[in-house]
Amino acid sequence: MKRTFLNLKTLATLVLTAGLITACSSDDDTITPPDTVDPEETRWITVAGAKMGDNPGDGNGGTLIYSVSSEDAKDPTVSIEPFQNGFIAPSNRTARLQSSEDGNTIFNISYAGDTGGNYTKYTVEGGQVFTPTGSEVSIAPYVGTAPRWIKLFDGDKTGAAVYVTTEHEFDENDNYTRTEATIGVVTLDLVNSSIIEFQENSVALSAEEEANGYYISRIDMPTLNAAGDKLYIGARLSKVNPATTENDSDYEILGSKTIVLDYPSLLNPTVITSAVGHGNTNGYRSINSFEYNGSVYQANQGDPEGSYILKIDADNEYDDSYQFNLDDALGIDGAYILAWRPAANGKAVIAYRHDGSAEGVAGAQGFFALADLNAKTAQKIEAIPYDPDFYLFQYQGFVVDGTEIYLTQAPVGQNGNIYIVDTETGEVTKGAELVNVAGSHFIGTF
Predict the structure, then answer these.
(1) Which helix or strand (DSSP H or E) is residue 330 part of?
(2) 49: which strand partners?
(3) pLDDT, tens digit only, all 446 positions of the chain
(4) Is residue 212 domain-resident?
(5) Is the CB of residue 300 less than 8 Å from the CB of residue 256?
(6) CA dihedral defined by 420, 423, 424, 430, rounded to 10 degrees?
(7) Calpha distance 91→96 (Å, rounded)
(8) Against a cut of 0.85, is the pTM above it?
(9) Which residue in 177, 198, 394, 194 sits closest to 285, CA to CA?
């Protein structure tokens, strides 16, 4: 008997509930009472889906979320229908979601539109019930209505959002000299819904790089170091032709770069450069770098040799002795890390595509791999089914619960499942069914 979660509100008198009021999916309309959640044994797993706007897989129709207990997330007889019964996360386009480490709180900053830049926080109650908590605050005056933001790993206390603006500069003879890149960073008190700090800084590359037309064109994914005194911000480089200032699309890819700021002051920017990886470090919609064992491990994208996992040590410099290339580890070409997340044991699940990916309805086909940061190895997770329309470019969230990592698998417009990867043993469990709708896709767990 498959269980389908209904659109019913959880009982307010229950402080901790696993779930949800359920009914049998056939002709049995008997409602079973909610179970009691043992906080020592379970956590909420919130599934997020991005609804189609104009085209399949664009995710521009809004974001819906739905939560179940970890036991139900592991149960293949459970059926979850976020697109039918989910809570609409406020956002004009795909919401930028974050969750607390225990899964009991969802943080959201609306992306674009009239509400763009609004920060809201919700207590997870089960099913479609996400209860607003605390006050709202807008970060739009600081970083605009389409902010790139992330939750810092400091015990769910702080979020950070960033932007960059650029302006070409010329000498007295109207000859191009460089492109000025000004970054803005705001930190947000997630507990009290208030602005902590905001700073703008001019960030320069080397004189030679700037004279050749290189500049920082996008930044994202701020990450706090282990000491808590530096903030690392991923960067994408672009280039103009110095003779014409027209965009240059055929140029040498420089070493991967990261902006380093003092924290919490957000002052004194420097730029560090990897001698191992080349390409961008800003990621896209998923957290792109994580602190582990005293260092920060960072994925890069657009590397001519395929994506690397790079390492920044406690001295706030790249450790060029650490070389972990996904092409080499998986035996593929053109690996591109779309999203990833390590557990506390240094083993990680990586969402990726490569040059051999099929072209699906929304873009290149995606895959998952299990990687070991210490051994610098990775292998494709074969137990997860793949489809040409399995699209992971917009993937955002993984849940880490001990050594287990929860992820979603479903091609665009097709049903799929939650899968749970035990990073220690490599065992993969097929969990609850994810019910899709035409043109939409799932963007992760939180």
Answers:
(1) helix 326-330
(2) 64, 442
(3) 445 444 333 333 333 333 333 333 333 333 333 444 455 568 999 999 999 999 999 999 999 999 999 999 999 999 999 999 999 998 888 889 999 999 999 999 999 888 899 999 999 999 999 999 999 999 999 999 999 999 999 999 999 999 999 999 999 999 999 999 999 999 999 999 999 999 999 999 999 999 999 999 999 999 999 999 999 999 999 999 999 999 998 999 999 999 999 999 999 999 999 999 999 999 999 999 999 999 999 999 999 999 999 999 999 999 999 999 999 999 999 999 999 999 999 999 999 999 999 999 999 999 999 999 999 999 999 999 999 999 999 999 999 999 999 999 999 999 999 999 999 999 999 999 999 999 999 999 99
(4) no
(5) yes
(6) 20
(7) 8
(8) yes
(9) 394
Helix/strand number for the chain, H first, E second:
5, 33
Q: Is 23 domain-assigned?
A: yes
Beta bridge partners of 436: none
Report residue 76: phi and psi, to 5°. -70, -10
d(CA 368, CA 63): 23
Nearest to residue 307, comparing CAs of 270, 341, 348, 278? 278
Nearest Cα to 230, choosing from 283, 267, 187? 267
Per the domain annotation, does 359 fall within a domain?
no
End-to-end CA separation in angstroms for the chain? 27
Tally of domains in the chain: 1
Strand bridging mode 78-80 / 3-5? parallel
Q: Are 48 and 396 in contact (CB under 8 A)?
A: yes
Domain assignment of residue 45, given as a range: 1-94+394-438+442-446
Three-state SS at 37: coil
Q: 344: helix, coil or strand?
A: coil
For the record, the structure tokens of 138 come out as 């807008």
Query: In the structure encoding, which two tokens stand for residue 110, read together?
Result: 């609306």
Separation between Cα atoms, residue 51 and residue 413, nearest integer Å: 10
| 220 within domain boundaries | no
Return contacts of 87-92, CB within 8 angstroms, 24+ apart. 87/122, 87/128, 87/129, 87/130, 88/62, 88/63, 88/64, 89/48, 89/62, 89/63, 89/64, 89/65, 90/115, 90/118, 90/120, 91/62, 91/63, 91/115, 92/62, 92/116
> What is d(CA 143, CA 166) in angstroms, rounded to the nearest whole number?
14
- Count the alpha carbons within 13 Å of 164 in the hemisphere toward its beta carbon: 23
